[in-house]
Amino acid sequence: MDDVDRRILAELQQDGRLTVTELAARVRLSVSPCHRRLRELERAGAISGYRAVVDPAAVGLNFEALVFVSMRQEDRDTVVEFEGALADIPHVVEAQRLFGEPDYLLRVVAADLAAYQRLYDERLATLPGVQRLTSTLVMKHVVDDRPLPA
Predict the structure, then answer these.
(1) 149: cis peptide before it, omega within 30°?
(2) How far is CA 7 from the centre of its chain?
(3) What is the pLDDT along the chain (150 residues), one digit of tens a residue?
(4) Most C-beta atoms within 10 A of its C-beta, which of 17, 81, 133, 145?
(5) Three-state SS for 6?
(6) DSSP labels for 24-70?
(7) Which H helix or E strand runs over 5?
(8) d(CA 16, CA 11)
(9) At a CB cut-off of 8 Å and minimum separation 6, what does 71 contact?
(10) Distances (CA, A) of 74 to 38, 128, 131
């Protein structure tokens, strides 16, 4: 990956809807070489996809919590079952497995506190292998969806 590839990535992180022609102009390449580089970045996995960034509040998801999960047991089968069950909960919009304690960090969205409580009681607390859940409410996003540094 060279400086031109990095500029392509930086431009697309700012505006993923650029046409190849617009992108080529911004990175000072002709269209064909820019298109080839773009396809190679996609093929190599540097670009993993394109998507719309949706404001949760605009779709009625006004409540957000970070949930720390401590596991009772962490054998392979339990971890696979837990992670598979997480994938089936659409309100869990991010999940990271961590080294140390706690074992997982989840980012969860819901309509309001009552909806979060139902989700917590009915889905999160019943996940396989869970010993303890600790929730922290998100007050404000200070840095959100920042592009990766070049």
Answers:
(1) no
(2) 23
(3) 999 999 999 999 999 999 999 999 999 999 999 999 999 999 999 999 998 889 999 999 999 999 999 999 889 999 999 999 999 999 999 999 999 999 999 999 999 999 999 999 999 999 999 999 999 999 999 998 888 887
(4) 133
(5) helix
(6) HHHHT--HHHHHHHHHHHHHTTSS--------GGGGT--EEEEEEEE
(7) helix 3-14
(8) 8
(9) 78, 79, 82, 103, 104, 129, 130, 131
(10) 41, 10, 11
* 103 CA to centre of own chain: 18
Inter-residue contact 90 to 99 (CB < 8 Å): no
Residues 6+ apart with CB under 8 A from 107: 64, 65, 66, 67, 92, 93, 94, 95
